[in-house]
Amino acid sequence: MARVQRDLTLRLEVEELYTEYAHALDNLELEQWPEFFTDECLYQIVSRENLERGMPLALMRCESKAMLADRVVTIRQTQMFAPRATRHLVSSMRIAPSSGADGLDVQANYAVLETLVDEETRILSAGRYIDKLVREGDVLKFKSRTCVYDSVLVPNSIIYPL
Amino acid sequence: MARVQRDLTLRLEVEELYTEYAHALDNLELEQWPEFFTDECLYQIVSRENLERGMPLALMRCESKAMLADRVVTIRQTQMFAPRATRHLVSSMRIAPSSGADGLDVQANYAVLETLVDEETRILSAGRYIDKLVREGDVLKFKSRTCVYDSVLVPNSIIYPL
Amino acid sequence: MARVQRDLTLRLEVEELYTEYAHALDNLELEQWPEFFTDECLYQIVSRENLERGMPLALMRCESKAMLADRVVTIRQTQMFAPRATRHLVSSMRIAPSSGADGLDVQANYAVLETLVDEETRILSAGRYIDKLVREGDVLKFKSRTCVYDSVLVPNSIIYPL
Fold it and tell me: Which of B51, C93, C121, C150 could pair covalently with B115 via S-S, beta carbons 3.0-4.6 A apart?
C-alpha cells in the first residue's frame, strides 16, 4: 500500500510539473519557462528523423538555464512575427520503471496547437517529450527536455518553446 | 498520508466531472448538459482577446440552469445546421491550491474537434476552461464555466456548447 | 480508504495499458500490438454511423490475436504507402462503475494525428475507444477494442491500427 501511495504521489508531482509548464507557455509567461529547469540542463527541439539517425541538428538548443533566459529575451525583442496563441495537449505520460537515483525518465505525447490572428487553429507541432527529471530542493525540475517532432518539414514558424 | 489521499480523491472527482461532461456533449446527450451546473450558474464562451480586455462580449452566455435548458431546446429546434460530431480533448488540468470554502478553482486546456458529414475532422476550437466548482449534495457541479477560445475569428459555426 | 486505494490502483493500471498501447503504435513497434490483446479478442475500426445503425461493416476487423499478428505481417509487407508518423492523444477515460466479474468496460476519446514526409501534421482520425478489459495473469489486456471514428468519409489512408 505504501509503495502504491508513493507511486501515486510521484505521478501527481510529475503531472503537476507538466501542467504548470504547459500553462506558463500557453499564458505567454515566458520568463517562467527557465524556472522549470535545473541550472545545468538541456532543452532541444529535434526532428524524429534526426534523432533516429543520431544527427545533432536541432531547431532549438539550449544547454543551461542562462541560455534559456537568453532565448526568452531574444523572443521578447523580436517583433518580426505575428501574434499567436499556443495550446498544449499532453497525453500518454509514462514514467520509466527504472527511474531512480540519477533522476526520472519520463516520456509523453504532445500536440501544440497554434492560433494566429484571423486564422483558424492549426497543429503547430506533434511529437514526443523525452525528459529527465531531477529533484532540486523540494521540487521536480527538468534536467533535460527533448521535444521530438514528427514532421520532417522544418516548421520555421516555431517561435516559442514547445 | 491522509492529506495526499484526500487530494487524490478530490482530483479523481474533478476528472470524473470533466470526463462525464465531455462524453455527454460528444454523445449529443444535450439534455444532460445543464445537469452539470448549479441552479445559479454562469456558462460563457469568450475569446481570449475579449477576456484580456475585460470586454463582456460572449459568443454564448447563460446565467442559470434554466437558460442552459432553454439553449438546449433552441439547438434541438434549429434545423439549419449540418449534422456534425464533436470530440473533446482535455489536458493539463490544474486545481488551484487556494481552492477552499467558496469552491474549487480549476483550469484545463481543451480542444474540440469537429467532423461534418463528408468532411475531414478539423479543430473547431482550442482554448482554456476557467471553472468554479462547488459541491451540491454529494456531487461536484459547475458554478461557472468560462470557455476562453484562442482564435480571434468568431467561429460562427459553434452550434453546441464547448 | 481501502476502496479508494483499490480504485486508484486500478485506474493507474488502465491508464498504463492505454499509454503503452499508444507508445507501441507511435513508435511503430507493430509487433508489440497483438500482445495487448487476449488470444480470443475483437479489434475493429467502425464508423460512428455504422455503429449507431447496427451495421457490421468495419474498416478493419480482427477476431483473434493470430489475426492481429497476420495484420501486422501484411502491413510490414506492404510497400505501397508513404512513410508516416502517428501520434495518439487520449483523453476523458471512463471506467464504467458496473465493471466487474466479466471484465472492465472502459471508454475514452482519442485523436490520432498523422504526419507524412513533407506534409504538415493533420488529424487522421478522431473518435472513441469502446473497450472490454480482462486480467490475464497479472496484466490487463484488451478482450475487445472498438475504435469508433467520427467521420463518415472512409479514411482510406488508415494503414496502421488506431
Answer: C150
